[in-house]
Fold each of these.
Amino acid sequence: MRSLLKLGGYCNMVISLLHIVGLFWAKEFFRVTGVAEPMNQLSALHSSLPYLLTGLVAIVFALFGIYAVNEEGGFIKLPFQKNVIYGIAIIYFIRGFGEWIAHAVLHSVNASETLYSSIAIAIGAMYGLGGWYLFNKTKTIRQTKEIRR
């Protein structure tokens, strides 16, 4: 179960990397991901804004990944680890289920958005279940150590 959290972290690392690589073919990348029109509007304000926003999004995905891969405080002690991991799970669930609900209400079905929403729900489940296992196991280990004393 704990490997689910790491898998979710690696998925975020891949998503982050795809955002960075996508910047080399920005127009096509924005079209495929469905954000071409908002990025064109941002570009009207300043030509660098779509690139900066995509870079920021890549950094956020990388941070999400680092929190999951470093789940037991391996190479860095990260603050608020439990809250952040559960928060990431909630963000992914809101993203995934929110898109599904929006499509149902608007009676519009888009295959790529449905796929992206399903991936978001899967990653959210990886974080939620992996985090639950990690933090409940950790609590049980601490309780066992206290009983032995």
Amino acid sequence: MSWRFCSRLDVPKDARRVHKKPTPLMGGLAIFYGFIVSVLCFATLDRETLGVLIGAVIIVTTGIIDDITDMKAIVKLLCQILAAAVVVYSGVRIEHIANPLSNWVGPPYIILNYWVSCAVTMFWIVGICNALNLIDGLDGLAVGVSSIASTAMLALTILSQNLNASILIAAVAGACLGFLPYNFNPAKIFMGDTGALFLGYILACVSIQGMLKMSAVITFAVPILILGLPIFDTAFAIVRRLLTGRSPMSPDRGHLHHRLLDMGFSQRRVVAILYTLTAVLCMTAVVISIKGYMRGILLIVSVLIIVMISVKVMAEIKEPGDNGTYNADEQLMEEEDRDEQD
């Protein structure tokens, strides 16, 4: 059993998987280990932090079991709900939602009663867990997006002078950046569901602790922008599957990164495009927090125009090969195979 655990590999067995070789799958444990050691050394272990850590253990255990035995989707969902319930019980809750129309209608905040607050918080945590898991389809994509998002959250928690949340998110950023060189294309190791679920969970929890409890009216939009890429991809996937008469939990090859690959981009280019999009959303969130909505909207519109033009230009640049059918990822792997043989 221990050998099976240590040598667990992700074998490319269907069209959704874009890697060509069996690859070690338990890298998420390294991310969790780096995070938990940092938090235990530097954070204040109050009731909320302990609740977040206990929930993290539940999430990581769920991910390990799923990576080894392919846990049923409903069982995995119930485990995520359990972890979210522990967090809520410890006092980490979304207690109010900002009213963006407060200048014209209603108060600045919509105060949630206890049970609605619990339900909204659990929905947020479980939703972000699965959103990060769904974008974990290319080498370095999910961990890179998490690195960018956690860096933006770190800046905002420091600005809000929330020391404990800053320590938690700094630990996440450090763990992600330490793992990224080993997960970037061509990946030496994957983080599996263990890492993807944990990163989604901890980003959701810190976004509640460090931002949704701030006093600024605009804070409701900030975590949604920071995590905008996985949120959009997940929402689009659910709608797409429902419209085609399939279960929202059924896997497919219609995610944003799959569509960019089908347009002819290599894995590295797709990841670079999605990193850029995430960085734009994160910068907008920071600008909104500091300068207000109008400057944030101006920034995101300006940068997205540049990104769209860049993507268009990149799509028109043909890679060398026969009639543009050259695949940069396959050539890179062929070169690696030759190096190993030499």
